[in-house]
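Weekly structure sync, notes
Attendees: PL (lead), two postdocs, one rotation student
Agenda item 3: pending single-chain targets
PL asked that the sequence for the first pending target be pasted directly into the notes so everyone works from the same version. It is reproduced below exactly as submitted, 332 residues in total.
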Amino acid sequence: MGRSIGIDLGTANTIVYVKGKGITLREPSVVAVEARSKRVVSVGSEAKRMLGKTPGSITAMRPLKDGVIAEFDFTTQMLRHFFKKVSGNTIFTRPRVMICVPFGVTEVEKRAVQDVTLEAGAQSVGLIEEPIAAAIGSGLKVESARGSMIVDIGGGTTEVAVTSLGGIVLSTSLRTAGDEIDDAIVSYIKRKYNILIGEVTAEQLKKNIGSVHPAADRGIMEVRGRNLMNGLPAIITVSSAEIREAMGEQVGHIIECIRTTLENTPPELSSDIYDNGIMLAGGGALLAGLDVLVSEITGIRAIVAKNPLDSVAVGIGHVIENENGGISYRNR
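Predicted structure, written out during the meeting:
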């Protein structure tokens, strides 16, 4: 029998949970492809280091966009590579896989995820909705009759959901998340300084000094890029306040999504959320000051999950560890 594994197949990163072992793999969802032959030459961390640095004969790219599969063949090869990494010497065993999908994706997009996973070598594929997995992994009691709110900010999508009795009562999926925030930082630096930076540099700015609230500002950072006026390398110093301004529109969309979901939540569940607070998960939950900003605007306490980057993978892990009884959930 194949081993049971859970996969958080994200736009930015893929995390694999192996039953009985826990999280055994964290890799960027990036592949490097030979332009002419379309042959994958590198996957994961090694491929990410190539972003923006490859010669014309090689393209480093992300095969997923906005939480769904954009490049079927490259996603298959990426998953196949990850299966081999987690299975070690037992690559002949085909794993049983549970994989997450964003809430509200179409049946065609769900089918694409299943087909890719089977093509990569899975024995069977089960789907779990991302907000439910994130809620379980963040420690929320999703089976309880009390309502809970989870905000999962990933690379490609932001999922805001209200859960109760093991299912999703209400959910809003937004195609504004980490990648769009990185793009906004690139555009801001280009517009203000006439300096072009890459997406890797933009991500470093977001992680190192990015904040969404003045109380959480984290100083300054030196940035290297290319001067668009003369084409020469340039160095500038950027502050937290500037990055906050750059991210303002995208963060505003996320906050508005949370407010809209709260406005549409049934009154009984609203009172539960007021008592329990709003749980923030995903890489975007690590934005400095996000919990403070959400609390100020909604009037409800916001809590960052203990391990926000791993919340979805840990949630899937709980489900596969208890597949013969224990945690259950209602899948659409």
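Discussion points:
- The chain is about 35% helix and 30% strand.
- Residues 240-263 form the longest helix (24 residues).
Action: rotation student to compare against the earlier draft before next sync.
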